[in-house]
Protein backbone atom coordinates (compact mmCIF):
# COMPACT_ATOMS: atom_id res chain seq x y z
CA UNK A 1 0.00 0.00 0.00
CA UNK A 2 1.21 3.52 -0.86
CA UNK A 3 1.36 5.79 2.17
CA UNK A 4 -1.05 8.69 1.47
CA UNK A 5 1.22 11.60 2.50
CA UNK A 6 -0.41 14.06 0.08
CA UNK A 7 -3.28 12.00 -1.28
CA UNK A 8 -5.27 14.54 -3.28
CA UNK A 9 -4.00 13.51 -6.70
CA UNK A 10 -2.55 10.14 -5.69
CA UNK A 11 -4.65 8.41 -8.35
CA UNK A 12 -6.74 10.27 -10.92
CA UNK A 13 -9.12 9.28 -13.70
CA UNK A 14 -8.25 11.23 -16.84
CA UNK A 15 -10.52 13.74 -18.55
CA UNK A 16 -11.79 11.93 -21.65
CA UNK A 17 -13.89 13.70 -24.27
CA UNK A 18 -17.39 12.21 -24.65
CA UNK A 19 -16.65 9.71 -21.87
CA UNK A 20 -16.10 11.28 -18.45
CA UNK A 21 -19.40 13.13 -18.26
CA UNK A 22 -21.45 13.45 -15.07
CA UNK A 23 -23.07 10.01 -15.37
CA UNK A 24 -19.69 8.33 -15.83
CA UNK A 25 -18.23 10.21 -12.88
CA UNK A 26 -21.15 9.30 -10.58
CA UNK A 27 -20.62 5.65 -11.53
CA UNK A 28 -16.85 5.84 -10.93
CA UNK A 29 -17.41 7.47 -7.56
CA UNK A 30 -19.49 4.46 -6.47
CA UNK A 31 -16.43 2.30 -7.15
CA UNK A 32 -13.84 4.56 -5.51
CA UNK A 33 -14.58 7.18 -2.88
CA UNK A 34 -11.17 8.84 -3.16
CA UNK A 35 -9.90 8.69 -6.75
CA UNK A 36 -9.68 12.23 -8.13
CA UNK A 37 -12.06 12.65 -11.07
CA UNK A 38 -11.98 15.04 -14.03
CA UNK A 39 -14.67 16.28 -16.37
CA UNK A 40 -14.30 15.96 -20.10
CA UNK A 41 -12.78 19.08 -21.63
CA UNK A 42 -15.20 21.98 -22.18
CA UNK A 43 -14.20 25.11 -24.08
CA UNK A 44 -14.56 28.63 -22.76
CA UNK A 45 -16.80 29.38 -25.74
CA UNK A 46 -19.23 26.64 -24.75
CA UNK A 47 -19.57 28.08 -21.25
CA UNK A 48 -19.74 31.74 -22.26
CA UNK A 49 -21.88 31.49 -25.39
CA UNK A 50 -23.78 28.25 -24.75
CA UNK A 51 -25.79 26.82 -21.86
CA UNK A 52 -23.32 26.82 -18.95
CA UNK A 53 -25.57 24.78 -16.65
CA UNK A 54 -25.62 21.95 -19.17
CA UNK A 55 -21.84 21.63 -18.88
CA UNK A 56 -21.35 22.61 -15.26
CA UNK A 57 -24.05 20.63 -13.48
CA UNK A 58 -22.85 17.66 -11.47
CA UNK A 59 -23.95 15.57 -8.51
CA UNK A 60 -22.34 16.55 -5.18
CA UNK A 61 -21.49 12.86 -4.67
CA UNK A 62 -18.93 13.13 -7.48
CA UNK A 63 -16.55 15.20 -5.33
CA UNK A 64 -13.61 15.44 -5.38
CA UNK A 65 -13.80 16.44 -9.04
CA UNK A 66 -11.94 18.91 -11.27
CA UNK A 67 -13.27 20.74 -14.32
CA UNK A 68 -11.06 20.78 -17.41
CA UNK A 69 -11.15 23.92 -19.54
CA UNK A 70 -9.99 24.51 -23.09
CA UNK A 71 -9.07 28.02 -24.14
CA UNK A 72 -6.28 30.56 -24.52
CA UNK A 73 -7.88 33.92 -23.73
CA UNK A 74 -6.90 34.87 -20.17
CA UNK A 75 -9.97 37.03 -19.59
CA UNK A 76 -12.38 34.34 -20.82
CA UNK A 77 -10.57 31.63 -18.85
CA UNK A 78 -10.81 33.71 -15.68
CA UNK A 79 -14.54 34.24 -16.23
CA UNK A 80 -15.10 30.52 -16.75
CA UNK A 81 -12.91 29.57 -13.80
CA UNK A 82 -15.14 31.71 -11.56
CA UNK A 83 -18.24 29.90 -12.90
CA UNK A 84 -16.55 26.58 -12.17
CA UNK A 85 -15.68 27.58 -8.62
CA UNK A 86 -19.22 28.86 -8.02
CA UNK A 87 -20.63 25.47 -9.07
CA UNK A 88 -18.57 23.73 -6.40
CA UNK A 89 -15.73 22.06 -8.31
CA UNK A 90 -12.51 21.36 -6.42
CA UNK A 91 -10.09 22.42 -9.15
CA UNK A 92 -9.91 23.98 -12.60
CA UNK A 93 -7.53 22.32 -15.05
CA UNK A 94 -6.23 23.94 -18.24
CA UNK A 95 -5.91 21.62 -21.24
CA UNK A 96 -2.49 22.01 -22.89
CA UNK A 97 -2.38 18.48 -24.23
CA UNK A 98 -5.15 17.78 -26.75
CA UNK A 99 -3.70 17.51 -30.28
CA UNK A 100 -6.85 17.53 -32.46
CA UNK A 101 -7.14 19.84 -35.48
CA UNK A 102 -10.33 21.40 -34.10
CA UNK A 103 -8.58 22.27 -30.86
CA UNK A 104 -5.56 23.69 -32.69
CA UNK A 105 -7.82 25.86 -34.84
CA UNK A 106 -9.24 27.28 -31.63
CA UNK A 107 -5.69 27.97 -30.39
CA UNK A 108 -5.83 25.77 -27.35
CA UNK A 109 -4.74 22.29 -26.34
CA UNK A 110 -1.27 20.95 -27.11
CA UNK A 111 -0.34 23.76 -29.51
CA UNK A 112 -0.11 26.04 -26.47
CA UNK A 113 3.07 24.24 -25.43
CA UNK A 114 4.74 26.44 -28.04
CA UNK A 115 3.55 29.51 -26.09
CA UNK A 116 4.50 28.97 -22.43
CA UNK A 117 4.29 32.70 -21.71
CA UNK A 118 0.66 32.75 -22.85
CA UNK A 119 -0.13 29.68 -20.74
CA UNK A 120 1.45 31.46 -17.77
CA UNK A 121 -0.72 34.52 -18.43
CA UNK A 122 -3.81 32.29 -18.56
CA UNK A 123 -2.91 30.58 -15.29
CA UNK A 124 -2.25 33.90 -13.57
CA UNK A 125 -5.62 35.29 -14.69
CA UNK A 126 -7.49 32.21 -13.45
CA UNK A 127 -5.64 32.18 -10.12
CA UNK A 128 -6.59 35.80 -9.58
CA UNK A 129 -10.26 34.97 -10.21
CA UNK A 130 -10.61 31.89 -7.97
CA UNK A 131 -9.41 30.39 -4.71
CA UNK A 132 -9.50 26.75 -5.88
CA UNK A 133 -6.31 25.26 -7.38
CA UNK A 134 -5.51 25.97 -11.04
CA UNK A 135 -3.62 23.09 -12.64
CA UNK A 136 -2.25 22.33 -16.11
CA UNK A 137 -2.35 19.12 -18.15
CA UNK A 138 0.25 18.97 -20.91
CA UNK A 139 2.39 16.70 -23.07
CA UNK A 140 6.18 16.36 -22.82
CA UNK A 141 6.49 18.28 -26.08
CA UNK A 142 5.08 18.85 -29.57
CA UNK A 143 6.41 18.05 -33.03
CA UNK A 144 10.15 18.80 -33.15
CA UNK A 145 9.92 20.87 -29.98
CA UNK A 146 10.40 17.88 -27.73
CA UNK A 147 13.70 18.43 -25.96
CA UNK A 148 13.93 18.16 -22.21
CA UNK A 149 15.18 21.76 -22.09
CA UNK A 150 11.98 22.98 -23.78
CA UNK A 151 9.85 21.01 -21.31
CA UNK A 152 11.81 22.56 -18.43
CA UNK A 153 11.23 26.04 -19.89
CA UNK A 154 7.49 25.36 -20.18
CA UNK A 155 7.15 24.04 -16.61
CA UNK A 156 9.31 26.78 -15.10
CA UNK A 157 7.45 29.56 -16.93
CA UNK A 158 4.01 28.30 -15.95
CA UNK A 159 5.08 27.52 -12.38
CA UNK A 160 6.27 31.12 -12.01
CA UNK A 161 2.66 32.17 -12.69
CA UNK A 162 1.53 30.14 -9.68
CA UNK A 163 0.73 26.69 -11.06
CA UNK A 164 1.78 24.12 -8.47
CA UNK A 165 0.40 20.96 -10.11
CA UNK A 166 1.33 19.64 -13.55
CA UNK A 167 -0.28 16.56 -15.09
CA UNK A 168 2.09 15.44 -17.83
CA UNK A 169 1.13 12.93 -20.51
CA UNK A 170 4.47 11.22 -21.06
CA UNK A 171 4.21 11.31 -24.86
CA UNK A 172 4.85 14.19 -27.18
CA UNK A 173 2.10 15.16 -29.62
CA UNK A 174 2.42 15.40 -33.38
CA UNK A 175 0.17 18.30 -34.36
CA UNK A 176 0.01 17.21 -37.99
CA UNK A 177 0.09 13.76 -39.52
CA UNK A 178 -1.38 11.85 -36.58
CA UNK A 179 -4.98 11.66 -35.42
CA UNK A 180 -5.86 12.21 -31.73
CA UNK A 181 -6.21 8.43 -31.39
CA UNK A 182 -2.77 7.84 -32.94
CA UNK A 183 -1.32 10.50 -30.65
CA UNK A 184 -2.40 8.36 -27.69
CA UNK A 185 -0.43 5.34 -28.94
CA UNK A 186 2.27 6.06 -31.52
CA UNK A 187 4.63 8.59 -29.92
CA UNK A 188 6.75 6.60 -27.47
CA UNK A 189 6.22 6.93 -23.73
CA UNK A 190 9.02 8.84 -21.98
CA UNK A 191 8.44 8.32 -18.29
CA UNK A 192 12.07 9.28 -17.71
CA UNK A 193 11.37 12.88 -18.76
CA UNK A 194 8.48 13.19 -16.29
CA UNK A 195 10.55 11.61 -13.52
CA UNK A 196 13.35 14.08 -14.21
CA UNK A 197 10.92 17.01 -14.03
CA UNK A 198 9.98 15.89 -10.53
CA UNK A 199 13.66 15.70 -9.57
CA UNK A 200 14.37 19.15 -11.00
CA UNK A 201 11.21 20.74 -9.56
CA UNK A 202 10.79 18.93 -6.21
CA UNK A 203 8.41 21.58 -4.83
CA UNK A 204 5.89 21.02 -7.62
CA UNK A 205 3.26 18.30 -7.63
CA UNK A 206 3.90 16.15 -10.72
CA UNK A 207 1.30 13.65 -11.96
CA UNK A 208 2.16 11.19 -14.71
CA UNK A 209 -0.38 10.22 -17.38
CA UNK A 210 -0.03 7.73 -20.22
CA UNK A 211 0.10 3.96 -20.58
CA UNK A 212 -1.01 3.04 -17.05
CA UNK A 213 -3.25 -0.02 -17.18
CA UNK A 214 -2.81 -1.69 -13.76
CA UNK A 215 -2.59 -0.59 -10.15
CA UNK A 216 0.77 -2.37 -9.89
CA UNK A 217 2.08 -0.07 -12.62
CA UNK A 218 0.63 2.90 -10.80
CA UNK A 219 2.42 1.95 -7.58
CA UNK A 220 5.72 1.63 -9.45
CA UNK A 221 5.30 5.07 -11.03
CA UNK A 222 4.48 6.60 -7.64
CA UNK A 223 7.99 5.85 -6.49
CA UNK A 224 9.10 8.68 -8.80
CA UNK A 225 6.22 11.22 -8.94
CA UNK A 226 3.37 12.48 -6.76
CA UNK A 227 0.41 11.05 -8.63
CA UNK A 228 -0.73 8.93 -11.54
CA UNK A 229 -3.60 9.37 -13.97
CA UNK A 230 -5.35 6.43 -15.62
CA UNK A 231 -7.36 6.97 -18.78
CA UNK A 232 -8.94 4.44 -21.12
CA UNK A 233 -8.34 1.42 -18.88
CA UNK A 234 -10.42 3.03 -16.11
CA UNK A 235 -13.23 3.51 -18.60
CA UNK A 236 -13.22 0.10 -20.28
CA UNK A 237 -12.43 -1.81 -17.09
CA UNK A 238 -13.90 0.43 -14.37
CA UNK A 239 -13.73 -2.14 -11.58
CA UNK A 240 -9.97 -1.55 -11.72
CA UNK A 241 -10.80 1.39 -9.43
CA UNK A 242 -12.27 -0.86 -6.71
CA UNK A 243 -8.95 -1.32 -4.88
CA UNK A 244 -7.76 2.26 -5.30
CA UNK A 245 -8.99 3.46 -1.91
CA UNK A 246 -7.17 0.72 -0.01
CA UNK A 247 -3.93 0.77 -2.01
CA UNK A 248 -3.50 4.52 -2.48
CA UNK A 249 -5.50 6.24 0.23
CA UNK A 250 -5.18 3.96 3.25
CA UNK A 251 -8.91 3.18 3.34
CA UNK A 252 -9.50 0.15 5.61
CA UNK A 253 -12.93 -0.72 4.22
CA UNK A 254 -13.36 -3.59 1.80
CA UNK A 255 -14.22 -2.42 -1.73
CA UNK A 256 -17.80 -2.67 -2.90
CA UNK A 257 -18.70 -5.66 -5.00
CA UNK A 258 -19.98 -5.17 -8.53
CA UNK A 259 -23.45 -6.17 -7.32
CA UNK A 260 -23.34 -3.54 -4.56
CA UNK A 261 -22.27 -0.89 -7.06
CA UNK A 262 -25.21 -1.69 -9.30
CA UNK A 263 -27.57 -1.71 -6.32
CA UNK A 264 -26.49 1.86 -5.59
CA UNK A 265 -26.48 2.94 -9.23
CA UNK A 266 -29.98 1.75 -10.13
CA UNK A 267 -31.82 4.42 -8.06
CA UNK A 268 -29.64 7.08 -9.71
CA UNK A 269 -30.49 5.78 -13.19
CA UNK A 270 -34.18 5.68 -12.32
CA UNK A 271 -34.06 9.23 -10.99
CA UNK A 272 -32.25 10.52 -14.09
CA UNK A 273 -34.79 8.88 -16.42
CA UNK A 274 -37.65 10.46 -14.49
CA UNK A 275 -36.26 14.00 -14.59
CA UNK A 276 -37.57 14.46 -18.14
CA UNK A 277 -34.60 16.58 -19.23
CA UNK A 278 -33.57 14.47 -22.18
CA UNK A 279 -31.55 11.79 -20.36
CA UNK A 280 -32.02 8.45 -22.08
CA UNK A 281 -31.03 5.04 -20.79
CA UNK A 282 -28.20 4.58 -23.29
CA UNK A 283 -26.59 7.86 -22.21
CA UNK A 284 -25.91 6.23 -18.82
CA UNK A 285 -25.64 2.54 -19.68
CA UNK A 286 -22.75 3.05 -22.12
CA UNK A 287 -20.50 3.92 -19.19
CA UNK A 288 -21.17 0.68 -17.32
CA UNK A 289 -20.62 -1.82 -20.14
CA UNK A 290 -17.20 -2.78 -18.78
CA UNK A 291 -18.19 -3.27 -15.13
CA UNK A 292 -18.10 -7.07 -15.38
CA UNK A 293 -14.95 -7.16 -17.53
CA UNK A 294 -13.28 -10.55 -17.14
CA UNK A 295 -16.17 -12.01 -15.13
CA UNK A 296 -18.49 -14.91 -16.10
CA UNK A 297 -21.51 -13.47 -17.90
CA UNK A 298 -19.72 -10.30 -19.00
CA UNK A 299 -20.41 -10.93 -22.68
CA UNK A 300 -24.12 -11.50 -22.04
CA UNK A 301 -24.27 -8.34 -19.93
CA UNK A 302 -22.71 -6.23 -22.68
CA UNK A 303 -24.77 -7.81 -25.43
CA UNK A 304 -28.10 -7.39 -23.64
CA UNK A 305 -27.41 -3.75 -22.88
CA UNK A 306 -26.13 -2.96 -26.36
CA UNK A 307 -29.11 -4.59 -28.05
CA UNK A 308 -31.85 -3.17 -25.85
CA UNK A 309 -31.01 0.21 -24.32
CA UNK A 310 -31.87 2.15 -27.50
CA UNK A 311 -35.22 0.50 -28.11
CA UNK A 312 -38.34 2.65 -27.71
CA UNK A 313 -39.51 2.64 -24.12
CA UNK A 314 -36.24 1.24 -22.75
CA UNK A 315 -36.25 1.67 -19.00
CA UNK A 316 -34.56 0.39 -15.86
CA UNK A 317 -35.85 -3.11 -16.55
CA UNK A 318 -33.25 -3.45 -19.31
CA UNK A 319 -30.53 -3.07 -16.66
CA UNK A 320 -32.26 -5.46 -14.27
CA UNK A 321 -32.57 -8.11 -17.00
CA UNK A 322 -28.90 -7.69 -17.97
CA UNK A 323 -27.90 -8.36 -14.37
CA UNK A 324 -29.28 -11.89 -14.67
CA UNK A 325 -26.47 -12.95 -17.02
UniProtKB/TrEMBL annotation:
Descriptive protein name: tRNA-dihydrouridine(20/20a) synthase
Keywords for the protein's UniProt record, in alphabetical order: Flavoprotein, FMN, NADP, Nucleotide-binding, Oxidoreductase, RNA-binding, tRNA processing, tRNA-binding
Function comment: Catalyzes the synthesis of 5,6-dihydrouridine (D), a modified base found in the D-loop of most tRNAs, via the reduction of the C5-C6 double bond in target uridines. Specifically modifies U20 and U20a in tRNAs.
InterPro entries: Aldolase_TIM, DUS-like_FMN-bd, DUS_fam, DusA, tRNA_hU_synthase_CS
Lineage start: Bacteria, Pseudomonadati, Pseudomonadota, Gammaproteobacteria, Methylococcales
Pfam families assigned: Dus (PF01207)
Sequence intervals crossing the membrane: none
Family membership: Belongs to the Dus family. DusA subfamily. Belongs to the dus family.
Domain called DUS-like FMN-binding: residue spans: 13-318
UniProt cross-references to PANTHER family, sorted A to Z: FMN-LINKED OXIDOREDUCTASES SUPERFAMILY PROTEIN (PTHR42907)
Active site per the UniProt annotation: 98
Essential cofactor(s): FMN
HAMAP family assigned to the protein according to its UniProt record, in alphabetical order: DusA_subfam
Reactions the enzyme catalyzes: 5,6-dihydrouridine(20) in tRNA + NAD(+) = uridine(20) in tRNA + NADH + H(+); 5,6-dihydrouridine(20a) in tRNA + NAD(+) = uridine(20a) in tRNA + NADH + H(+); 5,6-dihydrouridine(20a) in tRNA + NADP(+) = uridine(20a) in tRNA + NADPH + H(+); 5,6-dihydrouridine(20) in tRNA + NADP(+) = uridine(20) in tRNA + NADPH + H(+)
PROSITE patterns: UPF0034
Enzyme class: oxidoreductase
GO molecular function, one term: tRNA-dihydrouridine20 synthase activity
EC code: 1.3.1.91
Site feature location: Interacts with tRNA: 95, 181, 184, 299, 302
Binding-site positions, FMN: 15-17, 68, 137, 169, 209-211, 231-232
Organism: Candidatus Methylobacter titanis
